[in-house]
C-alpha cells in the first residue's frame, strides 16, 4: 500500500463512511421503535380508565387578603438588613423610599433560585 491517497480513493472512503453511519442510524431507529411498541402496549392496557363525563365547575372567586404586616416594621427590617450588609449601625442608615422592582426574570429562573436557597437552609 502506498502513502498517497488519490482524490477518487478519498471520495470512496467518504461515501462508504456516510453509508455506514446512515445504516447505523436506521438500525438504531428501528430498535427504538421496537422497544417503544413493546413498552407502549403495557402502558396502554394499564392506563385505560372508564370514561366519565366532565362536569362544569363553578368559577372560583378570589379572596383578597389585606396586608397584615405593618409598613413601619417592614422599613425597620429592611434598614437593619442594609445596615448589617454595610457594617454600620441602623440609625446611620437613612431610607428615603422603598419600592418594589418588577420581576423581569422567567418563572423557571426564579424557581431555580428558590430551590438553591432552600437547599442551603
Briefly summarize what is shown:
With 121 residues, the chain is mainly alpha-helical.
Explain how this protein is built.
0% of the residues are buried. By secondary structure, this protein is mainly α. It is built from 3 helices and no strands. The protein has helices spanning 7-46, 71-86, 107-120.
Oligomer: single chain
* Principal-axis shape: elongated
The low-pLDDT segments are none
Number of strands: 0
Averaged pLDDT: 81
Helix content: 55-70%
Q: Structural class of the helices, strands and pairings?
A: mainly alpha
Q: What profile does the largest beta sheet have?
A: none
Q: Count of helices? A: 3
Return Rg in Å: 33 Å
| Residue share in β-strands | under 5%
Q: What separation lies between the terminal Cα atoms? A: 68 Å
Order of helices and strands: HHH
Task: For the structure shown, list the relevant keywords.
121 residues; elongated; 3 helices; mainly alpha; single chain
Detail the topology: elements first, then pairings.
Blueprint: H1 7-46, H2 71-86, H3 107-120
Amino acid at each position: 500500500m502506498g502513502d498517497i491517497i488519490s482524490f477518487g480513493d478519498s471520495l470512496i472512503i467518504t461515501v462508504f463512511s456516510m453509508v455506514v453511519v446512515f445504516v447505523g442510524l436506521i438500525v438504531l431507529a428501528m430498535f427504538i421503535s421496537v422497544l417503544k411498541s413493546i413498552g407502549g402496549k403495557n402502558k396502554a392496557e394499564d392506563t385505560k380508565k372508564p370514561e366519565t363525563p366532565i362536569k362544569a365547575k363553578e368559577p372560583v372567586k378570589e379572596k383578597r387578603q389585606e396586608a397584615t404586616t405593618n409598613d413601619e416594621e417592614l422599613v425597620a427590617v429592611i434598614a437593619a438588613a442594609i445596615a448589617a450588609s454595610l457594617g454600620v449601625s441602623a440609625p446611620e442608615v437613612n431610607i428615603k423610599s422603598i419600592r418594589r422592582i418588577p420581576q423581569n426574570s422567567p418563572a423557571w429562573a426564579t424557581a431555580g433560585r428558590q430551590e438553591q436557597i432552600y437547599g442551603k437552609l
